[in-house]
Amino acid sequence: MTYTVALIPGDGIGAEVVAAVKPLLDDVAEREGFEIEYTEFDWGSDRYLQEGAMMPDDGVDQLRHYDAILLGAVGHPDIPDHVTLHGLMLPIRKELNQQICKRPTELREGVQSPLRGYEGGDIDFVVYRENTEGEYADVGGREHRGFEHEVAIQSAVFTRKGTETVVREAFEAAAERDGKLTNVTKSNAQAYGMVLWDDIVEEVGQEYPEVTVERLLVDAAAMDFVRRPEAFDVVVASNLFGDILTDLGAIISGSMGLAPSANLCVDGDAPSMFEPVHGSAPDIQGQGIANPLATVLSGAMLFDDLGEDTAGDRLRQLVDEQLADDSAPRTPDLGGDAGTDDVIKDLRARL
Ligand code: NAI
Ligand code: MG
Asked: What are the Isopropylmalate dehydrogenase-like domain coordinates in residue numbering (predicted)?
């Protein structure tokens, strides 16, 4: 079996970790008896600086027929972040209908959490983030620039369909896991969109009597990610809240360099996109010290999505083994002094 994967290394450490991880993915695929045929796209900030666009006009269409997409990160210190995000990532997520962003948060054995008293296995939950609308809808405008009466309007969009899609997937996940769903909104202050969201959670919940639903306002949820992260199983949240909470989730489970993510097209035949949660990290770019494990674990989610779960499990097991071994190489974010390539070399040797 051969799968086609569109590879978008992107900017900064995104490109570094993707280049490092690719041979490991190939090794695992070969062992499991399948092959990946990559097509690499040199889209990103360098292209923007040369040609004025992060990707070509028909970029999203070029991606449509691949089995999956693997993205590093985008972001450049000389380009405003809204330009890089709106020029590449958001159009891909939206136009390929990747309505759900799934982000597991796990404190693995051998990893130090900044939370006192937490050890490997104590934190294990998954966030389902709505991924194509909500607060990231491209609806609004800015007028009268520079005048005292300058005005900007930014609207959030919540549709019944979009909300129901992510809520239903979250219930399905909770039913398969520990049977607990935490619904995070801010419906005291955002009394339209988020109240619709809460209503939909209530409605869909009727079909999952085995799932216990907890409701939290996002500010309380932020507190509880720190105070009692062990209490979460599946968390469902809007685009913005899910974005913020998953950085918090990444750091309580040890490092931004360990957090994977999947942008899933569940409703249609477009490919899903896999990427580390972290960005291009200009502060450590070019030093060869970026932690590649978030990308390895994103690769595992990509394999799962292709139906190659054994390969996905194999990758997760390799990462677990490496992290549990104190003598294994670790990048500085995990307290070590190893480089990106050392970590991958060690994983390949273990395989
Ligand atoms: P960031 O995630 O790039 O970095 C945050 C902090 O975590 C930095 O101190 C960085 O050194 C560290 N870090 C991140 N990934 C790491 C890794 N794999 N190994 C070791 N340390 C790691 O977020 P930041 O600094 O807010 O954004 C930098 C650029 O990335 C911006 O241009 C931003 O727009 C973009 N960005 C892109 C994302 C994407 O493409 N999905 C997501 C987040 C930010
Ligand atoms: Mg983010």
From this structure: 4-347
